[in-house]
């Protein structure tokens, strides 16, 4: 049994873009699991944009970490030793743990991952929190109906790539906005999006106007100028799902308020945030998405960074658009 583990801690609060210096790798003792507890070994850990909010000392939907705190993350892990009735050594589990190679956690906080269903890393992506966000955000808040035009920003990421495919399966015309030609090609050629716009090289507003006749549902993962451009083309009674605003996460000044609200008077569009933790049971999402994957109707991709020591780089890469699909770190 291991007696020590490596664990990443928050070394400093980033000013603007985070850097590697904001992370600190420490050795810490692994205690023996107590009653009801489980010792797990991390196989994959998730890096997610929301972690940037937790590094900041400001109100956010996720509670801030203190400097010196261990970094937390969704992980897929193998049970090494269990004092919890529902789990035994060798089981693969998913839970909210740490950026850590080993951890001791209460067994009831873990859910078992079915390794026969799909590669276990998907419990962090398409069959995990991002998949559930895409499913509930689109179906419950976006409420698309067949024939609607659905636009997704951050379209080649973990959440966005699933949103666009669920909309396509639901009979919508789908436009994805992403940051490279490799990403836009993936969206149209592999995922079946009708149109894809590279916001780095193309004029989003112009391309959108050429491609579709207004927007019925806008699923927003990024905010900023991309969202300004889409807002100008909302249809009457459009729905805007505010899921993420990654373009603002490293801002050092309070971003300018929404600039396109006057258009909502004309369109009577509805703008509503979504928070995946408002949905306590994700079974429906995983059953539907799992079914579409099995039927080859929904595809997914993962970007895998190898090595526990490279976890900060995987996180920093999210802000550079280095990932296609879900970004995970393969620890072992
Ligand atoms: P992604 O897999 O989409 O990774 C982040 C992507 O954001 C990058 O690949 C990059 O793609 C894009 N990006 C980075 N910087 C910018 C920028 N300045 N402007 C435009 N795009 C940018 O992450 P997730 O799918 O995990 O998350 C997507 C969004 O959803 C995030 O904003 C996240 O915070 C939010 N979220 C919200 C949840 C909720 O409950 N509300 C739950 C889960 C996620 P590109 O190359 O296209 O720029």
From TrEMBL:
Alphabetical keyword list: Oxidoreductase
Record region (Disordered): 1-22
SUPFAM superfamilies: GroES-like, NAD(P)-binding Rossmann-fold domains
Any Pfam family hit: ADH_zinc_N
Transmembrane segments: none
Chain intervals with Basic residues compositional bias: 1-10
Keyword Oxidoreductase part of the UniProt annotation: yes
Biased composition (Basic and acidic residues): 12-22
Domain Enoyl reductase (ER): 19-329
One function term, GO molecular function aspect: oxidoreductase activity, acting on the CH-CH group of donors, NAD or NADP as acceptor
Name this protein carries in UniProt: NADP-dependent oxidoreductase
Organism, as annotated: Salinirubellus salinus
């Amino acid at each position: 049994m291991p007696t020590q583990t490596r664990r990443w801690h928050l070394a400093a609060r980033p000013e603007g873009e985070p850097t590697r210096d904001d992370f600190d790798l420490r050795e810490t003792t692994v205690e023996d699991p107590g009653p009801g507890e489980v010792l797990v070994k991390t196989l994959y850990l998730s890096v997610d944009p929301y972690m940037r909010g937790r590094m900041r000392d400001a109100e956010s939907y996720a509670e801030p970490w203190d400097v010196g705190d261990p970094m937390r993350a969704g992980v897929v892990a193998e049970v090494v030793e269990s004092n919890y009735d529902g789990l035994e050594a060798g089981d693969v589990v998913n839970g909210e743990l740490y950026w850590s190679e080993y951890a001791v956690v209460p067994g009831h906080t873990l859910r078992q991952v079915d390794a026969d269903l799909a590669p276990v890393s998907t419990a962090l992506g398409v069959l995990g929190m991002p998949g559930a966000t895409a499913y509930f955000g689109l179906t419950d808040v976006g409420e698309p109906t067949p024939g609607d035009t659905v636009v997704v920003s951050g379209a080649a990421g973990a959440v966005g790539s699933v949103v666009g495919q669920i909309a396509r399966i639901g009979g919508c015309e789908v436009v994805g906005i992403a940051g490279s030609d490799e990403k836009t090609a993936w969206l149209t050629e592999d995922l079946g999006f009708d149109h894809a716009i590279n916001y780095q090289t193309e004029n989003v507003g112009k391309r959108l106007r050429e491609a579709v006749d207004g927007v019925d549902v806008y699923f927003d993962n990024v905010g900023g100028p991309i969202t300004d451009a889409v807002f100008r083309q909302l249809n009457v009674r459009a729905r805007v799902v505010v899921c993420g605003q990654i373009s603002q996460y490293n801002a050092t000044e309070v971003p300018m308020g929404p600039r396109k609200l006057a258009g909502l008077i004309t369109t009577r569009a509805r703008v509503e945030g979504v928070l995946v933790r408002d949905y306590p049971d994700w079974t429906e999402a995983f059953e539907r998405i799992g079914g579409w994957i099995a039927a080859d109707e929904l595809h997914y991709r993962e970007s895998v960074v190898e090595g526990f020591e490279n976890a900060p780089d995987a996180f920093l890469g999210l802000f550079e658009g280095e990932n296609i699909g879900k970004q995970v770190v393969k620890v072992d």
